Amino acid sequence: MLRVGDFLRRTRLSPEALRRYGDRGLLAPSRVDRHTGYRWFAPAQVARARLVGLLRRPACRRPGCGRWSTSSRPTGWPRSTAGGATSRTTWRAGGRSSAPCTGDSPATTTPPEAPVHDVALRTTDELTLLTTQRRLTVEELGAFVPDAARALEEHLAASGATRAGALRVVYHGMVTADSDGPVEVAVPFTGTVRPTGQLAVRRQPAGREAVTVLTRAEAEYPRLLDAYDAVARWCDAAGLARIGSPVEVYLTGRDVGPGEPHLEVAWPVS
User: Fold this and answer.
1) Any idea where the HTH merR-type domain is (predicted)?
2) Global pTM?
3) Are 156 and 163 a contacting pair, CB within 8 Å?
C-alpha cells in the first residue's frame, strides 16, 4: 500500500487534484485508517490515476469518457505537451487502439505494434540555466511554452549572453485540467545574466540521465507517452532510480520532417 505522498510522487498528481478525484468518487483510497484518518492507495491505482488525469483534458469532458475509464488502463504518462497535438488522436490503452475522447465505441481493429525506443545512459555536464516556471493547467500550456522561450531568448540577447544548448521543458508534475505542474522552461547559457521579473538563473549539477531520441512524428501527443514509458521501464530494468523531474530537450524546431530527430525525453537517474 502507498501512503499519500508516495502515491502523489508515483502519479505526479497535485494534492488538490487527488482530493477532487476522491470527492467525486473517481479515485477513492483503498484504505482509510479509522483512528488517524490516514489514506492508503494500492499500487494498482497508479494506472487509474493517470487515466483519470488524461480523461480530464478538455476534449474528453463528454458522455462516455467516465464509462470508458472504468475498464481501460493507460500505457503512458498522461500529460499534455507544448506541441499542441489534439486529444482526439487515437492512443493505445490496455493493449488495444481506442478513441476515448470522441464518445465513439472503442475500435476493434488489431492494435499497432508498440514503438521501440532505444534508451541510453549518458553523463551530463553542469549547466547554467535561465529559466521561468509557472503552475498552469492544460488549457494554458500551449501558449506558455513558446511565450516563455521567446522571453528567455530576448533576455539572453539583451544581456549579451550566449545560448549554450537546446531548449528544455521540465515537467515537475502532471499537467491536466486539474493538476497544474509546475512546468519550467529553461535555456542553458554562458556569460552573465541577471534575474529579472519571472526569469531566474539556476545551476544544474552534473550527473547522469536516461535518454531516448524521438523523431518529429514520434514526438506528437499521445505517441510521446510511449517514450516516457520506455525510459521508465529501461531504468527499472537497469536498477537505476529515477530522480528529479523528466525533461523534454528540443533539438530542432517543429518545421523538420516527420522522420527527423526532434526531441529527447530524458530522466535524471542515480
Assistant:
1) 1-57
2) 0.66
3) yes
